[in-house]
Design goal:
D-Maltodextrin-Binding Protein, domain 2, five-stranded mixed sheet, 47% helix
């Protein structure tokens, strides 16, 4: 229900001043025009990595893009989480696919041709979908494991159990601080994937029928005022900052990304409003397939991981156009139109038996495909 917050903060949600929080940015919604909810802090996805482990593996440049995690040198060294157990992880995989769709659209736009914009977009979505799935397979082929919890990834990377992993920004930044030396140096680093992640808002709302609505409204106001926003990412022992530790969340108010408040931030290099302009999230492209993406990661990458990793090991440093690689990365069985129709419809049908049957069918299909890729890599018939 409308908490009245929009009218109480006209400088944030009305007019055109410097402090105005955009209604949406990069395809993500930051507040509801009817006042039913408003964003309070921002989050994006990226890569956490252990500098020592990367050096030991001979990785000279830290990973900054999703594709960097598919390097030959990172085989059996990437920590991943199960998207069927974590909504944030599933979102990261969705954004990875959308990056490929956006890149394909850019390519088609540059080449122009006789296509209408709608035709160009349709082609980009379908081909970008397949590119994205191939990227997921390559990433999973380098995986050390798929954990049940997203929070485990940065912890394991910090302690050298993996070289790098995917995580949401505040998990990576918080763990980096937790393992830092007394002089501030840390073996765990985090970087957001510029152009490969949207910047979303975590929101707050007044529930209908709340027993203490005035107290609830006061708390909403506190979270949006400077006093509350400082607690998200001010360093400890700074004016108005947290007492024990910084949650390492990025405030939604724009003042925190300019002086004088910027100087007190635990993450002074972060600028979510800049990052958000480097990526455009198109809800219509993949949001209806959110459950399908989770499902496909499970059947292509988790349930068939043994065969996938074995095939990747056999392929080694073979050229990307080798028959074994082509077989490993064949996603024609789950192309976009099939995902939209058969897979999505099956998951929406609420027929558990059909879902299990489809999962078994596709898992068997990809296991056999990966086995064939391994045989090809070994030169077997």
């Amino acid at each position: 229900m409308d908490s009245g917050v929009i009218s109480r903060f006209p400088e944030l949600f009305g007019g055109a001043g410097d402090l105005l929080i955009p209604r949406s940015l990069g395809g993500e919604q930051y507040w509801d025009a009817r006042g039913r909810w408003v964003g309070t802090c921002l989050a994006e996805f990226g890569i956490c990595y252990n500098t020592g482990v990367l050096a030991r593996l001979g990785v000279l440049r830290p990973p900054t893009q999703w594709v960097d995690l598919t390097s030959d040198r990172l085989f059996n060294a990437i920590a991943l989480a199960d998207p069927t157990k974590s909504g944030s992880v599933a979102k990261a995989f969705e954004l990875m696919i959308q990056q490929q769709m956006n890149q394909r659209l850019d390519e088609l736009t540059v080449s122009e041709g006789q296509q209408l914009p709608e035709q160009r977009e349709k082609q980009a979505v379908a081909e970008g979908w397949e590119r994205g799935l191939r990227l997921l397979i390559r990433l999973a082929a380098n995986s050390r494991y798929f954990s049940n919890g997203a929070e485990r990834v940065p912890m394991d990377v910090a302690y050298g159990e993996a070289a790098a992993g995917m995580c949401i920004d505040f998990y990576g930044r918080f763990e980096s601080e937790a393992v830092a030396e007394s002089d501030g140096r840390t073996r765990l680093k985090y970087t957001s994937v510029l152009g490969g992640t949207s910047v979303g808002a975590d929101s707050i709302a007044l529930l209908r029928g709340a027993p203490h609505p005035q107290i609830a409204k006061a708390f909403i106001d506190f979270v949006l005022k400077l006093e509350g926003q400082k607690l998200w990412d001010f360093r400890t022992e700074t004016p108005g900052g947290p007492e024990r530790y910084a949650p390492r969340r990025l405030p939604i108010r724009k003042e925190f990304y300019r002086e004088p408040l910027h100087a007190y931030m635990a993450d002074p290099e972060a600028d979510p409003y800049h990052d958000a302009q480097e990526f455009e999230y198109h809800e219509a492209w993949t949001a209806p397939l959110f459950s399908a993406i989770r499902f496909l990661v499970r059947v292509m990458c988790i349930d068939s991981r043994g065969e996938l990793v074995s095939a990747r090991k056999a392929i080694g440093s073979a050229p990307a156009d080798s028959p074994a690689w082509q077989k490993l990365l064949d996603v024609s069985r789950v192309r976009y139109e099939i995902a939209v129709q058969q897979i999505r419809d099956t998951l929406r049908s609420a027929d558990r038996l059909k879902e299990v049957q489809l999962a078994e069918e596709l898992t068997t299909y990809f296991r056999n495909q990966y086995r064939e890729a391994e045989r090809m890599a070994r030169g077997e018939k």
